[in-house]
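Structure first, sequence second, as always.
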């Protein structure tokens, strides 16, 4: 059984939405207003739907629209790549297509290359020796115009069957983008091969595994941002902060998906932690073991929250609006998910989900640094209110959440809707409607959930 869990999780499984009324424990304390302008983020360049609606969402004076690119000027092969993007990543297809021009295409191809690599890893019908060879050599296929794999039975097999179309667009990218994508693909392939038959044991191995399947994505994206010159060179030179961004997302996914992974026969919780509370990881699904299960859950949430200070530092370095939105939205979604999971026994009997209204609020709000701090601060407070005094990790999580609270303390609350003109309110309603329509595609039955940003 392969150990790897979704090699492109910086792109995937960050949004998990459900319908219905919120319970009191899940209800967001966030208002639905706008935040103050961060002031240092550069405007992006997008195709136009409604500038005023985007102004409402970002708080920026005279911004360009945060909308999707026109495909009229795209080559047929590039249009096909964007079709594959929308088919394989409902969640991040939106934010990828909202990136600025040249960077948008580079990130789209980056995603599809890693999606294809991940499809190879996920396919249990490929003999192990052949799979290991493919993972180690996958980066070389980027320059092989004819390479494709037609034997896969995975749901995303189309990206392997039509890999020549993807690599054609890859070879059209600027050399600086190609170098990044090839390097990350090579490192990730090696990491996948390492964990094919290896379970995550120690916390150090958990970090290493998450680095391979998510941290490398963050590092690669940072290098692409810098290569586009939309962000400073230092962003692409640093590896620690973008790695933490990826680890925060991946650990959140692993924590939330305990039940789903157990049902699929997969284990990603580190043994070093769970063996303190049970003889087998499957024991947590037994109602009699719920108390121990929640204690283990809380310890893992505590571990994941340690990455939040790095997340805040990374986001504070971003200058381009489209890049900021791309990076910030998944992070606040992850924080909301951790808050919903913490000390929550339902993790072991159901899939903890972010409600659609809550998700729309986060998507509209996470557009500047002060806004992100406010969101993080409020979800941190939700966690603090539920810290049990008898939990083994109580002292540690009190220290970590206390630090996060200090780092996110801000005097920039939401602006009340009472101070907004009817025009802005109408535009806001349009943006909410568009967001709601998009999120509706994410709230289908479980077989349509994004598997993995």
């Amino acid at each position: 059984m392969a150990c790897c869990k979704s090699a492109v999780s910086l792109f995937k499984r960050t949004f998990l939405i459900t319908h219905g009324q919120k319970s009191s424990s899940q209800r967001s304390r966030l208002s639905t207003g706008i935040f103050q302008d961060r002031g240092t983020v550069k405007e992006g360049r997008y195709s136009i739907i409604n500038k005023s609606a985007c102004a409402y969402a970002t708080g920026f004076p005279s911004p360009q629209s945060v909308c999707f690119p026109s495909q009229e000027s795209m080559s047929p092969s590039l249009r096909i790549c964007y079709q594959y993007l929308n088919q394989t990543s409902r969640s991040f297809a939106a934010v990828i297509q909202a990136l600025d021009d040249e960077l948008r295409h580079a990130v789209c191809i980056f995603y599809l290359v890693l999606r294809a690599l991940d499809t190879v890893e996920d396919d249990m019908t490929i003999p192990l020796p052949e799979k290991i060879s493919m993972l180690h050599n996958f980066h070389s296929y980027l320059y092989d115009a004819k390479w494709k794999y037609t034997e896969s039975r995975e749901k995303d097999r189309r990206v392997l069957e039509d890999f020549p179309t993807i690599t054609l667009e890859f070879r059209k990218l600027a050399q600086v983008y190609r170098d990044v994508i090839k390097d990350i693909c090579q490192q990730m392939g090696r990491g996948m091969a390492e964990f094919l038959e290896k379970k995550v044991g120690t916390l150090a191995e958990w970090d290493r595994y998450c680095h391979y399947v998510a941290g490398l994505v963050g590092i690669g994206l940072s290098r692409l941002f810098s290569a586009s010159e939309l962000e400073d060179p230092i962003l692409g030179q640093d590896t620690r902060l973008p790695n933490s961004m990826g680890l925060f997302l991946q650990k959140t996914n692993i924590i939330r998906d305990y039940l789903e992974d157990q049902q699929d026969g997969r284990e990603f919780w580190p043994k070093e932690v769970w063996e303190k509370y049970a003889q087998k990881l499957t024991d947590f699904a037994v109602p009699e073991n719920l108390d121990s299960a929640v204690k283990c859950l809380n310890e893992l949430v505590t571990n994941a929250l340690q990455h939040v200070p790095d997340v805040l530092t990374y986001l504070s370095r971003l200058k381009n609006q489209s890049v900021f939105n791309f990076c910030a939205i998944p992070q606040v979604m992850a924080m909301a998910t951790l808050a919903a999971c913490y000390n929550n026994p339902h993790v072991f009997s159901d899939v903890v989900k972010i409600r659609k209204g809550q998700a729309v609020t986060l998507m509209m709000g996470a557009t500047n640094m002060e806004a992100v701090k406010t969101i993080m601060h409020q979800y941190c407070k939700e966690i603090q209110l539920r810290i049990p005094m008898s939990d083994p990790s109580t002292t540690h999580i009190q220290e970590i959440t206390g630090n996060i609270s200090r780092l996110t303390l801000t005097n920039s609350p939401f602006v009340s809707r009472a101070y907004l003109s009817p025009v802005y309110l109408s535009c806001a309603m349009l943006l909410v409607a568009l967001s709601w329509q998009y999120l509706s595609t994410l709230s289908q039955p479980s077989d349509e959930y994004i598997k993995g940003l």
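Margin note: The chain has 20 helices and two strands.
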